Amino acid sequence: MTELRNVEADLSRFRARVLVAGIAVVVCFLLVLSRLVYLQVVRHDDLLEQAESNRTAIVPVVPNRGLILDRNGIVLASNYSAYTLEVTPSKVTDLEQTIDALSQVVEISQRDRRRFKKLREESKSFESLPLRTRLSDEEVAKFAGQHYRFPGVEIKARLFRSYPYGELASHVIGYIGRINQTEKEKLDDSDDAANYRGTDYIGKLGVEQSFEAQLHGITGVDSMETSAGGRAMRRLASNPATPGNTVKLALDIKLQHMVEELFGERRGALVALDPKTGEILAFVSKPTFDPNLFVEGIDQESWQALNESIDKPLLNRALRGTYPPGSTYKPFMALAALETGKRTPEQTIFDPGYFMFGGHRFRDDKEGGHGNVDMYHSIVASCDTYYYMLANDLGVDTIHDQLQRFGFGELTGIDIFGEVRGLLPSTAWKRKAYKKPEQQKWYAGETISLGIGQGYNNFTMLQLASAVGTLANNGVKMKPHLVKEVMDIITHAPTTTEHESVGEVIAKAANIAVIKHAMVGVNLEGTSSASFRGAPYTSGGKTGTAQVVQIKANEKYVASKMEERFRDHALFTAFAPAEDPKIALAIIVENAGFGAKYSAPIARRVIDYWLLNQYPSLEDIEAVKKGMAPAPIGKPRTVAELPWPPGAPVAPVAPASAASAPAKTASAASPGR
């Protein structure tokens, strides 16, 4: 029997299914709608930013580094742009093989390989490192055609630092180098972290390091549209970088060049400054080095040659080299005697050629002695015995307290990093310096040699020049500084370094006058008179000879029988003109011997340059290098006639007036201490 379908039941079930399906569709639609609302409304800003970041990239724009100029506007450090061939080690499978293959396309020297190896050791594998710099357009084109063969290798345009005069004033200017890991971590923790995005190089020494904040500039940004593969397509927006400010030094680079020429191959240092302002006019350390070696990353061989050289060319001798001051210390000892009342200018001592103390014979530099000596002649003739006795009368702690006021054993506060304190001894210092009780005790015999600038005394030429400048400036101590002003790159407004006095007048005017008068006598009739004979100005000075090794009581110092590096140092201090000093200086020529023979002649040329606008003749320069010309010889040039840059054709020389004609060469006086 045929079963009849229940139509009503079928319709009811159908309607239920349609209702369920409809509800499901509505729910799905609502879910989609809510998701759209969430994405389009709630997360609109966030997703728009993500979309933009997928489409664009923010690229830091490294600023041009600021210029460094000398006091007359001569450029000492600038920038140039060039192409570099860079490798990211983490993206290269076989680095050596890749470099070998690259050398078939672009010339890669052994020095390039060594430098790259040193950079790899100092950097992380994901950093892009320069393999070759300063590629020519032809080399760039060659590589572009072969680029597909070298994943992880790119051509980049970079700015490079340039030091146009190479080794000249390198310790002052300093150099830039690649940011190492320690510096990177320090920058990341500083407020300047964002400003160093994209920057690979930073100041490492000298003004480049100390004025990094002023020279670096402000990093800009470019907003670039990128393809799906990350390739830049076009610039959407740009916030340009602000170049670094211009740093102008007080240094006169022509004066600096002259002094470095006069030193020749000899080692030593010279600091010349304006005693009234503290501006440093010359800051010489010999030997020097070429800062351009560091710009692209120095190779291991060059670094080793500099770092392991017995001459220590990387040592800034003017700032960090410490030496016994020798007899240049005597004027300050004499002033201490006047200030404490231990001596009067007229008081005399008898010098038999030695001073006996505790059974030890302290010898004078003059065989047979100087006879009766007052304060004036003790400085002019550089009598050791006078100062042996004086040191014994003063005592080490009084010497310390009196000489410390002039900055001996203290930091001057110069505006570049790395200055050392030197050593002005005292009983308190010795107790701290040594561990054993017998070493901590100060022995009376140790005081005697302090009087002639020997013993534990060790100071920098910067300290000595600052002390002489203070004396020349009638006891007013000025803070020395290398930077004259910083010029804003946008407004061109200069921020001038203040001429800052340090403390009050540190000695009585009458006592200072006695010492200055005696120092004038040194150059007129004393140990350095041969160097200053014929000078059309009056100057004060003091020669000095500092022992490197101690000579036994029964031995005599004979330079020719000693190894060169064990011979005495030659020192000289000076100021001029005596009545109104505009320059003060301190110089040391290492292992040269007598200050009168080797240091005073250089000082004479420095003062002639500054006061008379004279530059020594070529003949004179060669003679000074050999210690054979106390006073200038030949026809001096004016500073304007000096070929500049060095090596340029010589400018025609105008006839010299009678007033500027050089004096006849004087015979050398007996070298003194």
UniProtKB/TrEMBL annotation:
Protein name per the record: Peptidoglycan D,D-transpeptidase MrdA
Phylogenetic classification of the source organism: Bacteria, Pseudomonadati, Pseudomonadota, Betaproteobacteria, Burkholderiales
Compartments reported by the entry: Cell inner membrane; Cell membrane; Membrane
SUPFAM superfamilies named among the record's database cross-references: beta-lactamase/transpeptidase-like (SSF56601), Penicillin binding protein dimerisation domain (SSF56519)
Protein function: Catalyzes cross-linking of the peptidoglycan cell wall.
EC identifiers of the protein: 3.4.16.4
Domain Penicillin-binding protein dimerisation: from-to ranges: 61-235
Keyword Transmembrane helix included in the entry's annotation: yes
Family in the record: Belongs to the transpeptidase family. MrdA subfamily.
Pathway: Cell wall biogenesis; peptidoglycan biosynthesis
Penicillin-binding protein transpeptidase domain residues: 268-607
Cofactor note: Binds one Zn(2+) ion per subunit.
